[in-house]
Amino acid sequence: MANPESDGELKHQARLLLSWREQALRNKASTDEVDTLLERFRAQGKQRMQFLGAALQAALRKQAELVKGSDSGEVSARKANQLLQRLNDEVGRHRAQITLYNRLLSAKTPEDLGGFIDLPLDQYGSVLVTPKRALLPRYNRRDKRQMAVLAAIAVLAVIAVLFWNRSQAEVQFGAMAPHFPNGKIRLRCLNNTPKDIFLHAPWINAAEKERPYEDYGVEVLVRMESKSEYRLVPSEGFWTYNGISTRAIEPVRVAPGLSSEVELNLKSLFEQTPLINTVRLVCTRGDGRSAYAFDAPARKQ
């Protein structure tokens, strides 16, 4: 796995690529070279995401099996705790890396990753790539062994998917409000489809016809005290993804087989719209199809 230094290097490489492209556009120069490098960077990142996703699912399965073994007495409590700690660390590393790659691959401008890097147009290539350094870290020997095992699992999974009912290959949502009375609602989006999807938190396009068909988004409705009907309220700026405002990264990319979680800050919502009795989240697809709804009592802080 990449270490913190290489994580920072990856982010810097992505900023350089996006800055290079922006500089080329500013100077009305060709973007062919940087577009090729961006495409390669994203393709390599997507491949890495798929590997990390498979590794994460394998670790989560091991966790579940270990808990089951501990509960049945097949594994001692001491050994189970030791192994669970290692698995928890592994799961945490995988999730951190997936979060990083999600952010890198969804970035559209250098500002999404920290800001524009201003260099003369002819210097970006030499700063970015050297013969001894690839755009993305190469797999180490341990990664390659894991990939061989996970590839076999993936083949079996693909065969199994062929027999799935079409309704299972869908995008699923779930929400919870564990932080009350602190005032946050978590919304999780699970992508069970074979391709990337994008989550808008919130929808910002006014008309459904302007929304990408395969994108998903959430809107916030509220019911006021002593009222029975719900009404739509603006919530842009109230949503965060991994602690970052979705204004900076919207939409959120959700890779196949993975989930992403966004949070709604109720405190900001209350300040904007006092006397709220209930908050309702409504998730829809770009074509307007309803996907999920969640109601929560709005307890003020």
Could you describe the 3D structure shown?
- The chain contains 7 helices and 11 strands.
- 44% of the residues lie in helices and 21% in strands.
- The protein is an alpha+beta fold.
Overview features:
301 residues; alpha+beta; six-stranded mixed sheet; five-stranded antiparallel sheet; 11 strands; flat; disordered N terminus
- Provide the helix percentage: 40-55%
The helix/strand order is: HHHHHEEEEEEEHEEHEE
Mean pLDDT: 79
Rg value: 22 Å
Largest sheet: 6 strands, mixed
As residue ranges, the low-confidence spans are 1-5, 130-134, 151-168
Strand content: 15-25%
In terms of quaternary structure, what is this?
A: single chain
Broad shape: flat
Calculate the terminal CA-CA distance, rounded to whole Å.
41 Å
Q: DSSP helix count? A: 7
Tally of extended strands? Answer: 11
Structural class: alpha+beta
Question: What is the structure about, briefly put?
Answer:
This protein has 301 residues and is α+β, with helices and mostly antiparallel strands. Helices cover 44% and strands 21% of the residues.
How is the secondary structure organized here?
Elements: H1 4-26, H2 32-72, H3 77-106, H4 124-128, H5 141-161, E1 171-176, E2 184-191, E3 197-200, E4 216-224, E5 231-233, E6 239-241, E7 244-245, H6 246-249, E8 252-254, E9 259-265, H7 266-272, E10 276-285, E11 290-297
Parallel strand pairs: 3-4
Antiparallel strand pairs: 1-2, 2-9, 3-8, 4-5, 4-10, 6-7, 6-9, 10-11
Helix pairs in contact: 1-2, 2-3, 2-5
